[in-house]
Amino acid sequence: MNFSGIVIGVGAFLIIGIMHPVIIKTEYHFGKGAWWTYLVPAVFAIAGSIIVSQVIVSSLLAVLGFTLLWSIKELFEQEKRVRKGWYPVNPKRPVERFAPDSKKTPEN
């Protein structure tokens, strides 16, 4: 029996599932300016997936790399969700991060 597909599927599920709360916490504590901390490991993971010859490891590195790239987009989207009031605003972060045209500010 070949379990490679199952292992890759479970790994992809876990990687994507773990990244969801990580994005929320990153935006809360650091804001969208932390996007580059996702780009650097994404590039290394994708490069690693090209170099590694073992199929499962290569596949999981590719999934990780592209999930990290997608997380950059989600980090910017998370800021919009915070502005809409869907997620809490970090009171310790400066108010200037909200653009003047935004509908939500920490005071609202």
* Number of helices, counting only DSSP H or I runs of 4 residues or more: 3
Averaging pLDDT over every residue, what do you get?
88
Please mark out the parts with pLDDT under 50 across 5 or more consecutive residues, or reply none: none
Helix amount, in percent? 55-70%
Amino-to-carboxy terminus distance? 58 Å
* Biggest sheet features: none
What oligomeric state is this? single chain
Query: What general outline do the C-alpha atoms trace?
Result: elongated
Given helix and strand content, the structural type is: mainly alpha
Number of domains: 1
Q: Please state the CA-atom Rg, rounded to the nearest Å.
A: 17 Å
How many beta-strand runs? 0
How does the SSE layout of this entry go?
Elements: H1 4-30, H2 36-51, H3 55-83
Helix pairs in contact: 1-3, 2-3
Offer a concise description of the structure.
With 108 residues, the chain is an all-alpha fold. The protein is elongated. The chain is built from three helices and no strands.
Task: Please characterize this protein's 3D structure.
Helices cover 67% and strands 0% of the residues. With 108 residues, it is mainly alpha-helical. α1 packs parallel to α3 and α2 runs antiparallel to α3 (55-83).
What labels would you give this structure?
108 residues, elongated, 0% strand
